[in-house]
Design brief:
This protein is one of the two subunits of integration host factor, a specific DNA-binding protein that functions in genetic recombination as well as in transcriptional and translational control. With 109 residues, the protein is of the alpha+beta class. It folds into 2 domains: 40 residues; 52 residues, IHF-like DNA-binding proteins (HU Protein, Chain A), CATH 4.10.520. The protein has 3 helices and 5 strands. The model has no long low-confidence stretch (mean pLDDT 90).
């Protein structure tokens, strides 16, 4: 699902919202989440998951072209941990999809 798909779904589901209003709502939410992560805060959405910042320590890497060692600086990267409800929902749907599609593995016949 892309951002524009999400905007279209919101506008479709909530008839009182125009496409422009739905786009503004999605942009506002994503901007607020980005700002919170940039300030080092943790975001938790119950039933969905949590976003946090992980620190990657500095390390020595290697330039593949010359083979020379290069210092890779410390980085802060966003991390998402799915919530229990999301994990279970994906797993349940995955099992239903596997049961609906016939197996191409001859040993499973």
């Amino acid at each position: 699902m892309t951002r524009s798909d999400l905007v279209a779904r919101l506008a479709e589901r909530f008839g009182q919202l125009t496409q422009r209003d739905a786009e503004f709502a999605v942009k506002t939410i994503l901007d607020a989440m980005s700002d919170a992560l940039a300030r080092g805060h943790r975001i938790e959405i119950r039933g969905f998951g949590s976003f946090s910042i992980n620190r990657r320590p500095p390390r020595m890497g290697r330039n593949p072209r010359s083979g020379e060692q290069v210092l890779i600086p410390e980085k802060l990267v966003p991390h998402f941990k799915p919530g229990k409800a999301l994990r279970e929902g994906v797993d349940t749907r995955g099992e239903a999809t596997e049961a609906d599609t016939p197996s191409t593995d001859p040993s499973r016949s």
